[in-house]
Predict the structure.
Amino acid sequence: MLRAEHSLGFTLDAPDSWEAVHDPSPGVALALLAPEAAAFRPNVVATVGPTTAESGDLGAWQRAAADGLGESVDDFQLLDAEVDEGGFRQLAAYVDAHRSLTLEQWAWRWQRPGHDTLDVTLSATVPTLLYDVMADELATVAASWRPLGEAK
């Protein structure tokens, strides 16, 4: 199992065949990349940032996230969304570079002891035709998120 630790104070686990890329672009803390499949690398991307006004109202936060995706990607279709006391999960499909992709996203607030509260979003993206095959694996990677030092 690949364990990726980030300097912000969290870990994510992925299969050994995956690659971890730390701080690949502004606003992205960690990207976990699966081996290439159908000319696309399935991935789980962790973004961590200051809390937003929307994150205090989980339903508004989920809708704002979906609206933002709808404005930034082609043919965005929200397929499912659920909000619970800890955050939200949503499932969507979209098109990028003439490729149909499926996005599953989980988000919650993280109160770091002795630090500020942060918004955490994990976004798993996979070619749509592989989603059914990879959904459990992506959910397992997302569920492995832990603050450093917290037992799994």
